[in-house]
Amino acid sequence: MDAVSPFLSIPEDVWLASNALTFAFFDTNPTSPGHALIVPRRPIASWFDASADEQTAALALLGSVKRELGRRFKPHGYNVGFNDGAAAGQTVFHAHLHVIPRYTNDVIDPRGGVRHAVIGRGYYGN
Questions:
Q1: What domains can be seen in the chain, in order of their start residue?
Q2: Catalytic sites, residue numbers
Q3: How far apart are CA 82 and CA 89, in angstroms?
Q4: What sign for the dihedral angle of Cα 26, 5, 17, 103?
Q5: How confident is residue 109, by pLDDT bands cut at 50, 70 and 90?
């Protein structure tokens, strides 16, 4: 990474959870209440650049984050994933997993999940 990641300046006292290789916190630009990010401690741009241990650590943290979001926000479902590269919508080039709580009736028809973000699918013309 060329620039210092803004994620690395987030103080530990606001983290939702952490382990040796990753940490989680609330997204500052959430798509829903409780939207959180899981980030490797090592500043790498792409999920695909993460080591197997970093990917495993991020997925291990997912359970803790889900439990905490469930306790605080009581969502009815979740979308979990990542954007990799500018063409995919990545705006902070430090790899991160999105954990997005979903709520009954938060959209008219949630079928297809993240497909609604792709032009030609869901709400973008079909």
A1: 6-117 (3.30.428.10)
A2: 96
A3: 9
A4: positive
A5: confident
